[in-house]
Amino acid sequence: MIHIKENAIFIADAHENKNRRGFWKFLQALKNNQIQTKQLFLMGDIFDLLIYEVKATHAFAKPYIELLEELADNIEIIYLEGNHDFNLEKFFVKVKVYSISKQPLVCEFEDIKRTKVKLAHGDIFLKPLLQFLLKSLRNHYLLYFLNFLNFICKEKITYEILNSQEKKYLTRKISNFESLVKDRMKKYQMNFIIEGHYHQDVFLKLDNIKYLNLATFAYKESFFIVKYDSEIRFHKIELKEA
């Protein structure tokens, strides 16, 4: 079981692309010791598009992958795959990758109570059809076929996907989010839950269950640092403040 250390950093939904390079700046700050931690949790959708089988997504991510592997010599890095970045295990040796099939990931805080928590990107427990489609998209053979189509189309498929992602509004508030969370809490069966995916930046406590939906890093380059005070706290910091 992974133990969440004090000062562990959580980042979700960086949605890194050629026009959005905040996560690269964050990694450089880690490398230069401007930001210090012994543990880094990447909660999925760190890239707008990164898939092992789709070669056109590799070149942009290669420097990030190399730097993450370098940082993993001194920092425990846990990468939960999202719905924009998946089938990543073959990219990494030292970074610990958890696919959707291994989520939610059960961890333990190092507070007095040794509180357990479930972590997930958030693209689980969805409506059955959507869940089926998302899992199907991770199929190796289908992805190799899509990679072939992308190649003969001169990478137009990946270009269109990335172009649409650049225009995506990342901070849309979900009006019925609390009721959506209540339903998800029942399925997690845990008293502490942390997700990304929804970009809502909210903390809810319902029926003695704590639920944290992390802010999207892509918006204001916000990340969270774990502190053990009288209770477990997640301090949100913007990269420009670090």
UniProtKB/TrEMBL annotation:
One Pfam family hit: Metallophos
InterPro entries: Calcineurin-like_PHP, LpxH-like, Metallo-depent_PP-like
Species annotation: Campylobacter insulaenigrae
Name of protein: UDP-2,3-diacylglucosamine diphosphatase
Domain Calcineurin-like phosphoesterase, chain residue ranges per copy: 9-200
Keywords associated with the record: Cell inner membrane, Cell membrane, Hydrolase, Manganese, Membrane, Metal-binding
Lineage, opening ranks: Bacteria, Pseudomonadati, Campylobacterota, Epsilonproteobacteria, Campylobacterales
